[in-house]
Amino acid sequence: MRPPSAHPATGRPRRGIAWVTALLCALALVPAVAGPARADNPIVQTVYTADPAPLVHNGRVYLYTGHDEDASTWFTMRDWRAYSSADMVNWTDHGSPMSLATFSWASKDAWAGQVTHRNGKFYWYVPVVNRATGRMAIGVGVSNSPTGPFTDALGRPLVENGEIDPSVFIDDDGQAYLYWGNPNLWYVRLNADMISYSGGPTQIPLTTAGFGARPGNVANRPTLYEEGPWVYKRNGLYYNVFAAQCCSEFIGYSTAPGPTGPWTYRGTVMPAQGSSFTNHAGIVDFNGNSYFFYHNGALPGGGGFTRSVAVERFTYRADGTIPTMSMTTAGPPQIAPVDPFVRQEAETIAWASGVETEPSSEGGMNVANIENRDHIKVKGVAFGSGATSFTARVASATSGGRIEVRLGSPTGTLAGTCTAPGTGGWQSWTTVSCGVSGATGTQDLYLVFTGGSGFLFNVNWWQFTSTSTGGGGNVLTNPGLEDGTTGWQPRGSGTLAAGTGVVRSGTRALTVTGRTGAWNGPGQDVTSRLTNGKAYTTEVWVRSTSGTPSAKATLALTANGTTSYVQLTPAATVNTGGWTLLSGTANVSWTGTLSQATFFVETMAGTDGFTIDDASFR
Ligand code: FUB
To answer: Is residue 13 pLDDT above 60, yes or no?
Structure first.
């Protein structure tokens, strides 16, 4: 149970708080937010987030943030949060993969950090107060997965000099650097193990040429540099983007010909704006675009200690300089639509109104604390020629409620209504379905929750079925692989395992190992679900665990005692570094009585292991 607190976006109490106290709290601290569709910045509406640190990995942007406790009057921060997106507008909540409790030696202040990926592991550098010394120190968490959980890599600080805000950068030659500091700016050369270093911390000279001149006569702070360095390299030029000139801070940047300087001040990335007197930068390139992450106080109840992370898309000028950006509520454009015909996590959200998230007993997170007229917006959902039914995984310790499937706005076209029953517990899950109509083309989806008073039900995931199979939708069971190996069997030799480390979407993908023939792979019995003479479209994402095999999806049909094979997708080379989409359309027909039909993924040759995710056969 969470500590009693008011909800960022609504001011309403969280589950477990007395209504009266909560109402007073809400009225005093947080203006209620009314109204329909919201824009998409800030990125997270369920908690206050700060100090963004994006990381691009396997076709997704992972966003690591700090977490300002509700109604804070100081930087009261006890854990860090993780989110991810493949489209830059809908973000999946991965909960809290690291907290102060991760570091037994830390007493408080889970402040601004950064995650990097090396040696198959993820390293999260963070500043916290060392209980033994009372000073700020840098700790490092490590995990095999970008979504954690992270453990303390050292059991002690990596480095400690009372300063904050680590930024990690790995140069092309493999040398890694850790930068940090307020009021000074430091770096140290990390060893390849990423949890030790060579040489001592070195101070970067804060010259006005390097970091700009601070207006006014501020003792010991002649330059604009304040805190929060974000160091990276682009086209051979090294960038240090930092929080400048307290307070209010703006985001400035410097460049250098090498990782240790000499730095030259280049100007403003984002002026001070709004009610947060700090700001904090994170920059990545993703899918051919550049993105600038920052924080502000734009949520209801927001301010200097109740901040929220936001993002803008930008284009470097031809000479490599960064344009000056303003904070927007619209955020960047969506780069790919959402597929409603594969399972989508309910905690994948463009804008949440009223709800919260919590860890789910079924893995990942679920949407919780749902009350009458709360809603979730999922932006840019590609319904294509149409959806016929909607399915959701729900749980309720009360008497449940309804999910209204609406299009375009929270009061837009009602495509269908599903009833979520009481299930006897907030984590006692059941699957409900209802018919939908009018959901065609690409639209913003609103799941509007209705019912009586109090908390109604939780939602773990949802999925639509399409018209293209006359209502049958995706022929495959567990197509998104979120239910582990359910529905899938190894064809011939091999072992299937549902892993969380390498996923294309959601929290799980399916890996086959121990293949002894090219025809071995993950398969599914689809005998009772096929229509003779129909054209089926197949999509499945594949990546190898070794080598660069050529993969394809195949259907084995046995009719009247004879087995034939339908190649469902052209073969495509897959590799270990990213996901490849196998996609194709093929006619499926047979003569006589069909006794066995198996959908499977195989390779043209070899026995390399591979992983699949987000499969559809419809
Ligand atoms: O979030 C706590 C501190 O505020 C960070 O460490 C700084 O960068 C500033 O954003």
So the answer is: no
The answer as to whether 148 is a domain residue is: yes
Q: Is residue 240 part of a domain?
A: yes
Give residue for tokens 């007197």.
277
Distance 110 CA to ligand 1 centre (A): 9
pLDDT at 454: 97
Return the pLDDT at 123: 98
Rounded to the nearest whole angstrom, what is the distance from the C-alpha of residue 141 to the centroid of ligand 1?
18
Is residue 471 domain-resident? Answer: no
| Residue 140: C-alpha distances to residues 59, 79, 167, 414 (Å) | 25, 14, 12, 49
Tokens of 291: 């993105």
* Mutate-to-test residue for ligand 1 from 227, 251, 293, 307, highest number of ligand atoms within 8 A of CB: 227
State pLDDT tens for residues 416-452: 999 999 999 999 999 999 999 999 999 999 999 999 9
Are the C-beta atoms of 428 and 314 separated by less than 8 Å? no
In the reported structure, the alpha carbon of residue 123 is separated from the centroid of ligand 1 by a whole-number distance in angstroms of 19
CATH number at residue 107: 2.115.10.20
In the prediction, which pLDDT does 610 show? Answer: 97
Phi, psi for residue 530 in degrees, rounded to 5:
-100, 150
Active-site amino acid positions: 51, 226
68 CA closest ligand 1 atom index: 1
Per the CB < 8 A criterion, the answer to whether 84 and 136 are in contact is no
- Residue of 48, 111, 307 to test ligand 1 pocket, by largest number of atoms within 8 Å of CB: 111
Q: Please report the atom of ligand 1 found closest to the CA of residue 165.
A: 6
- Does any ligand 1 atom lie closer than 6 A to the CB of residue 75? yes
Give pLDDT tens digits for 563-603.
Answer: 999 999 999 999 998 888 888 889 999 999 999 999 999 99
For residue 445, the enclosing domain spans: 344-466
Number of domains present in the structure of the chain: 3
Check residue 7 and give its pLDDT: 55
Helix (H) or strand (E) holding 487: none
Average pLDDT value for residue range 133-162 = 98
pLDDT digits (tens, 9 = 90+) for 521-538: 999 999 988 989 988 888
Indicate whether 484 belongs to any domain: no
Distance of CA 436 to the CA centre of its chain: 28
